Amino acid sequence: MMNRTATIERKTKETQIKLTVGLDGSGKNSIDTGIGFFDHMLQLFSCHSGIDLDVVCKGDTRVDGHHSVEDIGIVLGKAINKALGDKMGIARYAGKTIPMDESLATVNIDISGRPFLVFNAELSGKVGDFDLELVEEFFRAVATYGGITMHVNLHYGSNSHHKAECIFKAFARAMKEAVTVVGTELPSSKGLIE
User: Fold this and answer.
1) Pairing of the two strands 149-156 and 103-110
2) Which of 73, 127, 157, 167 is 20 to 30 Å from the Cα of 100, by its Cα?
3) Are 81 and 145 a contacting pair, CB within 8 Å?
4) What is the pTM of this model?
5) Residue 187 has pLDDT above 70, yes or no
6) Of the candidates 116, 114, 94, which has an alpha carbon nearest to the alpha carbon of residue 106?
7) CB 74 within 8 A of CB 148
């Protein structure tokens, strides 16, 4: 049984975060970001990816949620990258299209060591205390600090909650497949994934 886990702690003047991932888990999670809707998104990410996730964040949410959401993305990206270790045998590529009632989203992932985000989703306004424009900031941070090429496409939708939720679920399912160990070789013709 593999033990691909990592814990990252990050402290700044804006946020204090401790985050643990277990890539070979069962989707157990304990999430406390101080932002209710974001907790919900991270809980369903954990559930649908099968990645165990513990997050505690004390952030300057009296300002807004930006620093907390972006910094959690940074820490999650770093933790996934660390837990993957040498990346031997991982599937590396994955893409999933997920419906959420009237909304439909696709997320494609390449754990390439080359961070890049393409984000095609019109999200604005708020759900609860969460600014929807922060969805893009979160995924940019995860991609950048996880060394992941990621394409997020929201095909359509009208309900803001559903649009965000189907993006996070598609990300979860794609990540579950991409980190799965399917062989023994490094999945790179270059012989290196940094």
Assistant:
1) antiparallel
2) 73
3) yes
4) 0.95
5) no
6) 94
7) no
